[in-house]
Amino acid sequence: VADVLEAIVERLPPPTGDANKPLKAMLIDSWYDAYLGVVVLVRVIDGTLRKGQRVKLVSSGASYQIERVGIFRPKQEMLDELGPGEVGFFTAGIKQVADTRVGDTVTDEKNPTTEALPGFKPAQPVVFCGLFPVDAADFEDLRAAMGKLRLNDASFSYEMETSAALGFGFRCGFLG
Fold this sequence. Notes:
The two termini are 36 Å apart. The protein has helices at 2-11, 139-152, and strands at 24-33, 37-46, 49-50, 54-57, 63-65, 68-72, 76-78, 81-82, 87-91, 105-108, 127-131, 157-163, 167-174.
């Protein structure tokens, strides 16, 4: 094990980045926490990500003020900032996971980066199904359940669908 760890240190280059450039971070993952809202996992490419900073998500253009910044070691550890090459998380009062898209660029609102990180594409569902309530009176309960599922999975999509035989329901899309 010691030899493998030493080989990793010798063969893999350290992360590069410039703390003096405008913030450019890649959104790696996000999940909903009932107390904090959406927790966003990021890798900082350039610049620094600080508590109290206003950031913008490039794909949606939405801006948020960062409330917490930290890393996992394996438990949460709060920090004042994340620098180039570091992977950590932030919370910013984001209400829905759907507002954060994996691969998106996070940048400073006042001093944004000139170019977004390459390769970002919104998630496209590839598996679909139709969901219909057994009793038409349960349609609103099904709609509420779809909204709750969307809170936890940004790749999940749904839209209302009507069937002559089954009535009102939803067409749902998944990544696979």
